[in-house]
């Protein structure tokens, strides 16, 4: 199996990372610099209000909305390890054992907190005082004595080996260590390198905290590119292709620190055709907001997102490969289960998810579909919990939500319909048009590119992208014309390519 990581960072407004397996898009991450990402950041804040009725406090960390700190996330109440479960972790603590929030913190108190979940909608970010610093193979837990291994590492012999290595590293009494899933089968040398890196980083954070004002950010989580290399990159990825020389050098430097043997997998992309067009990723991104996803050889799934939950319905459509309705339903459901797991990952859907499969009568078929979905979800890095399929063919599950879904990054509520539909953001529309232009200038038949769109989009392109457009015109000897029309919606645009005789040229 050929596995690639594609890193697209040529546009200053965003970073995009795609992971392909045998040419199929399996994971997609997008980060816009206009939307500040604060999950993982550490702040020096102040308690502004305590609500005993919900056992929670609100903390001023210097952003527009106060952070939410629940009693279970206050140090000495219940330990947290940022998703990397220790072998000794106890999540069955009763209410009676928990300390009341007013006995742990007080109003106006200074606190060091970490963002564990981005604020969504009108809600502020979720916080914890149990700070953790993730490395490539280890998680450092300051002011803790915990030594543990991720529960995702199930081999008992390997768990014992890793725990022994950690004990041999002899971390200071005030620093705990948890081996991440990526630490499985790593040598003592690699783990030591990661530990030394984390210890130096924590020393920097400690020194900064001493003189920092309140409120202020003490530690800022790495950008999307470095986070992905740190948390997601694995040795089974055959190559990493990057379309920016500056980012290429940054990743190379980072890999030399944490995984020197993998530097050779880096490749700088230099073709004229945009990277995501080359591997047909743009087409997949266009499908992110579509309700209906077609299945191979017939059938479909329909994804409906509401405030309370996400509902996914499976339809057989015109699929009639089997004469027996039970077999038709079974085969469609099996295909749907795999695609549902993929779509949940791609769209980064979080919260409660309800899946309505096509009705089946046979118990063995229902259990087979259930096991297929469960197996497909295992490759998802987010924490999730799935219940057994009901006799009505319904499966309920929850998926960890740390950041807003990918859909909310790419789209916004339509201003023309009161929020009942969605349209692309101005930024998304302009970035999409720039990608189209870059693709079209490589077509030797096209001499002139003409775009008709709203005056808002045209203004953005002619002002913020004028230099880039001029460069493309000069480099490829093409004419690029932008027409702004009053009455066009932001996401509405028509693009034409014509030859030297004025004939339209078909483009993909």
Overview of this protein structure:
The chain is of the alpha+beta class and 508 residues long. It folds into four domains: 3-36 and 245-283, no CATH class; 42-219, OB fold (Dihydrolipoamide Acetyltransferase, E2P), CATH 2.40.50; 287-399; 414-498, Ribonuclease E, catalytic domain (Hypothetical Protein Ychn, Chain: A). It contains twelve helices and 26 strands. Strands 4, 5, 6, 7, 8 and 13 form a six-stranded antiparallel beta sheet that branches. It has a six-stranded mixed beta sheet with strand order 16-17-18-19-21-20, with helices on one face. A hairpin with a 5-residue loop joins strand 16 (292-294) and strand 17. Helix 1 (156-169) packs across helix 2. The protein is globular, with a radius of gyration of 25 Å.
Would you spell out the secondary-structure blueprint of this structure?
Layout: E1 3-8, E2 14-21, E3 24-32, E4 42-51, E5 56-60, E6 67-70, E7 110-117, E8 126-128, E9 133-134, E10 138-142, E11 147-149, H1 156-169, E12 175-179, H2 188-211, E13 216-219, H3 224-231, E14 239-242, H4 245-258, E15 266-268, H5 275-278, H6 281-286, E16 292-294, E17 300-305, E18 310-315, H7 325-347, E19 351-356, H8 363-377, E20 384-386, E21 394-399, H9 406-410, E22 411-413, E23 422-424, H10 426-440, E24 448-454, H11 455-464, H12 466-476, E25 479-485, E26 493-498
Parallel strand pairs: 1-14, 11-12, 14-15, 18-19, 24-25
Antiparallel strand pairs: 1-2, 2-3, 4-5, 4-7, 4-13, 5-6, 7-8, 9-10, 10-12, 16-17, 17-18, 19-21, 20-21, 22-23, 24-26
């Amino acid at each position: 199996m050929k596995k690639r990581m594609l890193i697209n960072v040529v546009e200053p407004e965003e970073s995009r990372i795609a992971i392909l397996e045998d040419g199929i898009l399996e994971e997609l991450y997008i980060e816009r610099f206009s939307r500040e990402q604060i999950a993982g950041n550490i702040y020096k804040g102040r308690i502004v209000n305590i609500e005993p009725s919900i056992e929670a406090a609100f903390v001023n960390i210097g952003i527009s909305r106060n952070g939410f700190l629940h009693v279970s996330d206050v140090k000495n109440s219940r330990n947290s390890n940022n998703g990397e479960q220790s072998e000794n972790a106890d999540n069955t603590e009763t209410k009676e054992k928990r300390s009341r929030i007013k006995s742990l913190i007080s109003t106006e108190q200074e606190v060091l907190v970490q963002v564990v979940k981005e604020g969504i909608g009108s809600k502020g970010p979720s916080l914890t005082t149990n700070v953790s610093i993730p490395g490539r193979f280890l998680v450092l837990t300051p002011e803790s004595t915990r030594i543990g291994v991720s529960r995702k590492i199930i081999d008992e012999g390997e768990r014992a080996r890793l725990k022994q290595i950690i004990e041999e590293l002899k971390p200071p009494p005030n620093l705990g260590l948890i081996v991440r899933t990526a630490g499985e089968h790593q040598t003592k040398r690699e783990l030591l390198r990661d530990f030394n890196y984390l210890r130096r980083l924590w020393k920097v954070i400690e020194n900064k905290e001493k003189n920092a004002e309140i409120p202020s950010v003490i530690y800022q989580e790495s950008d999307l590119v470095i986070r992905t290399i740190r948390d997601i990159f694995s040795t089974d990825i055959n190559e990493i292709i990057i379309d920016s020389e500056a980012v290429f050098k940054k990743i190379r430097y980072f890999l030399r620190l944490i995984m020197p043997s993998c530097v050779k997998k880096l490749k700088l992309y230099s073709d004229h055709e945009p990277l995501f067009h080359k591997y047909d990723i743009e087409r997949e991104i266009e499908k992110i907001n579509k309700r209906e996803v077609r299945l191979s050889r017939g059938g479909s799934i329909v994804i409906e997102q509401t405030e309370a939950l996400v509902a996914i319905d499976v339809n057989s459509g015109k699929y009639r490969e089997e004469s027996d309705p039970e077999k038709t339903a079974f085969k469609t459901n099996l295909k749907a289960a795999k695609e549902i797991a993929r779509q949940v990952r791609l769209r980064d859907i979080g919260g409660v998810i309800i899946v309505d499969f096509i009705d089946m009568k046979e118990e063995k078929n229902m259990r087979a579909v259930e096991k297929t979905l469960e197996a497909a979800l295992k490759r998802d890095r987010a924490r999730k919990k799935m219940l057994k399929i009901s006799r009505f063919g319904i499966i309920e599950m929850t998926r960890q939500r740390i950041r807003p879904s990918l859909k909310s990054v790419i789209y916004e509520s339509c201003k023309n319909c009161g929020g009942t539909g969605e349209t692309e953001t101005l930024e998304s529309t302009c970035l999409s048009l720039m990608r189209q232009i870059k693709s079209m200038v490589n077509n030797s038949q096209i001499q002139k590119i003409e775009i008709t769109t709203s005056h808002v989009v045209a203004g953005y392109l002619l002002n913020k992208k004028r230099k880039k457009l001029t460069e493309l015109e000069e480099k490829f000897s093409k004419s690029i014309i932008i027409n702004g029309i009053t009455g066009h919606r932001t996401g509405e645009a028509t693009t034409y390519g014509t030859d030297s005789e004025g004939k339209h040229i078909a483009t993909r």
